[in-house]
Write a structure and sequence with these properties.
single chain; mainly beta; seven-stranded mixed beta sheet; about 50% strand; globular
Length: about 120
C-alpha cells in the first residue's frame, strides 16, 4: 500500500510559479507510475501530467504543456510538479496519484490518491 501526501499549494498571482510535492510512504514507490490531476469547483477531475517509474518518460495535458514539469526522486519517494506561467484557469485542488499503468490519463487506472493541495491563481 502507498500513502501520498501533497504539499506546496497556495495563492499566487497570474504569471507566477509554484512547486508541488507529493511524498509517498512505503518502500515500493519506484514500482508505481505517478501522475498529477486537478479538480476545479463544479468540474470533473482532469489529468495534468504523468511520469513513468524510472522518470524517463512523461506525458502532459495540452493545457499545461510547456508550462508545467513533472519529475520524481525515487531515493526521496517524492514526485514534483513545477508550475510556471500560472493562469487563473489553473486554479484547482491538485492531487497526486499512483498507478501500475504507465502514463495513463484515466483516473480509474490509479490505485492510490493523496488528499489534495489547493492552488489558487489570482488575475
Amino acid at each position: 500500500q502507498v500513502q501520498l501526501l501533497e504539499s506546496g499549494g497556495g495563492l499566487v498571482q497570474a504569471g507566477g510559479s509554484l512547486r508541488l510535492s507529493c511524498a509517498a510512504s512505503g518502500r515500493t514507490f519506484s514500482s508505481y507510475a505517478m501522475a498529477w490531476f486537478r479538480q476545479a469547483p463544479g468540474k470533473e477531475r482532469e489529468f495534468v501530467a504523468a511520469i513513468t517509474r524510472s522518470g524517463g518518460n512523461t506525458r502532459y495535458a495540452d493545457s499545461v504543456e510547456g508550462r508545467f514539469t513533472i519529475s520524481r526522486d525515487n531515493r526521496e519517494n517524492t514526485v514534483y510538479l513545477q508550475m510556471n506561467s500560472l493562469e487563473p484557469e489553473d486554479t484547482a485542488v491538485y492531487y497526486c496519484a499512483a498507478s501500475s499503468v504507465a502514463l495513463t490519463s484515466t483516473p480509474g487506472h490509479y490505485d492510490y490518491w493523496g488528499q489534495g493541495t489547493q492552488v489558487t491563481v489570482s488575475s
